[in-house]
């Protein structure tokens, strides 16, 4: 099963979408919304109603285990019933580990047991130093800065957890034009406030067109990918961030001089509990930041990938250009 996107008009006729996927969905052409709906069933065996907006779990019509998918329906426009004019987008992708509530519960337990412990310990210890009159002013000031840095780190972990446990019934985010020229520098400043020794080089053309996204979520994506690159970059090395237009999309690449990825590691880079030579710095082992990042990018209609060709680490995502035809 491969990821696929179908666009239907208000009468349920297919008017656009991923090419060459009909064979993967049973061989027969998918010309109408009903053709796609008959390929799947609800987990309890009941038929699917793909006209309703939202995210749902489905299984192959034959009901075989292991064929679970996530199907998302997003309505376009104001619902005018005009033939051949796109009215809804239906995306289908394979069911992943992080979609399973039991697996998410395991991840939460791992994160709560390990990842939250470090910032909480630092905040608790720093607070004690700040309030101790016997400690020098220099030490108190450094403790206060440590508390602030770890509080920011803790806030980011909590934001990741919120995304991870968000109900699968949530509607897709509202999309609007977003300027990466505003978001990337803000993320760089945020990272450097927590990791002041980080060296980050940014290539961000002023002519870059806006992308379609949700600003808060794009900010979260850029922050997570940049932070990942900085964490795995050797001390003194420079992380490179490059944004560029690629056809009808804008791509943003994050390149570091840390361990590279082979093809297998690149394919699983955004999976829950993924392990590789780059996972040693994740105390929980959940790979939470990258799991969440993939969810956010896909929810905005973008793509995200890891490169196995780069000598070091390279992660990238793309979002559609706003206002494209």
Give your account of this protein's structure.
- The structure is a single chain.
- The chain is an alpha+beta fold and 325 residues long.
- Helices cover 35% and strands 23% of the residues.
- It has helices spanning 33-37, 101-115, 117-130, 137-165, 180-194, 215-232, 263-267, 288-299; strands at residues 4-9, 14-17, 40-41, 54-60, 69-75, 86-94, 176-178, 199-203, 211-213, 238-246, 249-256, 303-306, 313-320.
- The protein has a six-stranded antiparallel β-sheet with strand order 2-1-6-5-4-3. The protein has a five-stranded mixed β-sheet with strand order 8-10-11-13-12, covered by helices on one side. A two-stranded antiparallel ribbon has the order 7-9.
- Strand 10 (238-246) and strand 11 (249-256) form a beta hairpin.
- Helix 3 (117-130) runs antiparallel to helix 4 (137-165).
- The two termini are 29 Å apart.
Which radius of gyration do the C-alpha atoms yield? 22 Å
- Helix/strand-derived class? alpha+beta
Number of helices: 8
Mean pLDDT: 81
Q: How would you spell out the order of helices and strands?
A: EEHEEEEHHHEHEEHEEHHEE
Total number of beta strands = 13
- Unreliable spans are none
